């Protein structure tokens, strides 16, 4: 179970500084996860690969998260959380330095995989720390601040890194992210309190806590529902230039707009999730499906394309806090592992969306095809959410 809030020992200012310190790590993660999408044209040209193979650079990071999140979270189940967060950040830094120097496509894929390994475990640890500090009434909003690092990265970090990569070489993304992770380590070491895991926490207890149908339905729902957005965003640079007709130098502004929508959606999601977790998930998934269909049909028109991209960013990011809380709530006896599964699901969706998009593009269906496929995936996620609501009502748990 998540422990009671330690706010008696910490002032509101101390709690805020600690949560913001943890969110800086989310900022670094957001840059490395999403800047590769804005720089994919440069990566494809530099490595001499196809567009579909460029999508695999996105997918390999996501696969690293899927593998690393449960494994590293289990390894951290009994560890003091602040110390473990610092260890995970150190692994993240090393993998990005390796990627910066990777001489070919194959080693770059390995670097992307290694970079993704600590992602989910870090967010699981940071989310649980933030939730404990904030207390039960504000836990979703505290988690939304940690996850908000990703959304803010899409506004402030990804456009800037996209521009730097276009000017000085796309590989500099990796060194910038390594520097951001170093800053995170210093901030977390300075402001975050030491925080012991729940009494009696063990690897066996975490695994035993996973015997829950609602948890696994939630994971499947997240993988399928989130994949829709990634089918669009993994190829946004190609759509922007080759379908909409924007010049390359406008791409930082395109990704900025999507990221700005993501910031709004993340904090709206945190607020709505504290009122109802699954109704927020359902509304967000239906909205993503409708808006992505509209984006695909108007992608050749600059103004409608930008409007619908912005709205997709809002709707998709609303899912972040709500899915995170749903998975934690479904496995209260395995909080570390359940929290990490949110990021496994999110990044399995990242990989699935990028791979689906690459398949339909390489099959000659056109650059809009991934978005249509993604809209269908989001709609299927909404159907699964209806089933999750039914399961939750049957158990008597809060929806």
From TrEMBL:
PROSITE patterns found in the cross-reference section? MFS (PS50850)
Q: Which CDD domains match?
A: MFS_NepI_like (cd17324)
Query: What protein name does the entry list?
Result: MFS transporter
- Gene3D superfamilies the record matches: MFS general substrate transporter like domains (1.20.1250.20)
List keywords of the entry alphabetically. Cell membrane, Membrane, Transmembrane, Transmembrane helix
Name the principal localization, coarsely classed: membrane
Transmembrane segment boundaries: 15-37, 57-77, 84-103, 109-131, 143-166, 172-194, 215-236, 251-272, 277-299, 305-323, 344-365, 371-391
Q: Which InterPro entries match?
A: MFS (IPR011701), MFS_dom (IPR020846), MFS_Efflux_Transporters (IPR050189), MFS_trans_sf (IPR036259)
What residues does the Major facilitator superfamily (MFS) profile domain cover? 18-393
Q: Which Pfam family, giving just one, matches this sequence?
A: MFS_1
Instruction: Quote the subcellular location field of this record.
Output: Cell membrane
What topology does it adopt in the membrane? Multi-pass membrane protein
Organism expressing this protein natively: Nesterenkonia rhizosphaerae
Domain of life the protein comes from: Bacteria
